[in-house]
Amino acid sequence: MGRRKSNNTSSSNNQDSPFSNDMELHQPTKIRFPDEDDVALDAAAETSNHDESMCDVDTSVSVCDKPAEDPQCQPNVSIPDSDEKTSADYYFDSYSHFGIHEEMLKDVVRTKTYQNVIYQNKFLLKDKIVLDVGAGTGILSLFCAKAGAKHVYAVECSHMANTAKEIVEANGYSNVVTVLKGKIEELELPVPKVDIIISEWMGYFLLFENMLNTVLYARDKWLVDDGLVLPDKASLYLTAIEDAEYKEDKIEFWNNVYGFDMSCIKRQAMTEPLVDTVDQNQIVTNCQLLKTMDISKMGPGDASFTAPFKLVAERDDYIHALVAYFDVSFTKCHKLQGFSTGPRSRATHWKQTVLYLEDVLTVCEGETVTGNMTVSQNKKNPRDVDITLKYSINGRRSVVSRVQNYKMR
């Protein structure tokens, strides 16, 4: 899904980090990852992307939460025949393949941030019992073991659990890391409680694949009262972009395909958010905070919500799409640490989520696009996300009011 533009260019205009508001810091904070543990941290300063990511954020808009069902991951059973599989089956099957783990491990922003959080905050891990939810190859468990954890229970539901066991043995950590294969909701740990839960649960649009509720289940069942969840904060943001060239290529293309009308596909394409990288120069408006989730305190239903937004045009331009992205932070560290997946950040495998609008909005500097976004789990498969977008503009050159529905599948 490569775009014609790259978002690897750093932004130097980052004085107003949203973390200076959310974390009640006295000064705007640049999150950096200094070296600490030999060669393993040499690239840390390069991989920090909070320094590059933040734009002005309006945090004054309130959020109206709506409840949602607690998702269930599939138990560790034999995979059914292909004609009997659901998308939930494919979810776990996909994590049995090495390619997806290679992509995640090579996401330097993602993996180095976790490594730095663990290695630079060994006082949090020392002699603690850790639960790694969705362990994959076991990389986070190995980080914790090396940092001095008393014991780590690495839970993985896919067949990758077998490989994780081999990796743990090959690196001499079998006495510290125990890999458990199965569904978190059905497992019993060898210990009654754990001190820390660590997980890389975030999906596209933050909530796609919805592994968050599995983390919350583990938190409620096994975490001690004063225990830690790493990471403990995640925030979803919205902005607007000019994207005429790419919208023409991806959406308008279906109007005339070698002389034939295939616009019925266009209507379907408009409902599917596009996961792709966005050039920061395409951004037309401010960035709006939609929702901040406190993973240490939130309930399962908080992953579904309705949030209002107000996007203010920063120049005369056109708006073809809204773009969502998220930030993740570890607030219990000695120094605030985390990363952003925004267009002004170093690219990650999460990229950004592009929601194309049916209308082309002609905006003048200072005009506003207002509305609200409703995010909810799909009723048939809670790992999928349904999005309803209501937006309107009453400007000099555009007067539009519309509701659009999107489905992340």
From TrEMBL:
<keyword id="KW-0489">Methyltransferase</keyword>
<dbReference type="Pfam" id="PF22528">
    <property type="entry name" value="PRMT_C"/>
</dbReference>
<dbReference type="GO" id="GO:0042054">
    <property type="term" value="F:histone methyltransferase activity"/>
</dbReference>
<keyword id="KW-0949">S-adenosyl-L-methionine</keyword>
<feature type="domain" description="Protein arginine N-methyltransferase">
    <location>
        <begin position="232"/>
        <end position="395"/>
    </location>
</feature>
<dbReference type="GO" id="GO:0016274">
    <property type="term" value="F:protein-arginine N-methyltransferase activity"/>
</dbReference>
<dbReference type="Pfam" id="PF06325">
    <property type="entry name" value="PrmA"/>
</dbReference>
<keyword id="KW-0808">Transferase</keyword>
<keyword id="KW-0539">Nucleus</keyword>
<dbReference type="InterPro" id="IPR029063">
    <property type="entry name" value="SAM-dependent_MTases_sf"/>
</dbReference>
<dbReference type="InterPro" id="IPR055135">
    <property type="entry name" value="PRMT_dom"/>
</dbReference>
<protein>
    <recommendedName>
        <fullName>Protein arginine N-methyltransferase domain-containing protein</fullName>
    </recommendedName>
</protein>
<dbReference type="InterPro" id="IPR025799">
    <property type="entry name" value="Arg_MeTrfase"/>
</dbReference>
<dbReference type="GO" id="GO:0032259">
    <property type="term" value="P:methylation"/>
</dbReference>
<feature type="region of interest" description="Disordered">
    <location>
        <begin position="1"/>
        <end position="37"/>
    </location>
</feature>
<dbReference type="GO" id="GO:0005634">
    <property type="term" value="C:nucleus"/>
</dbReference>
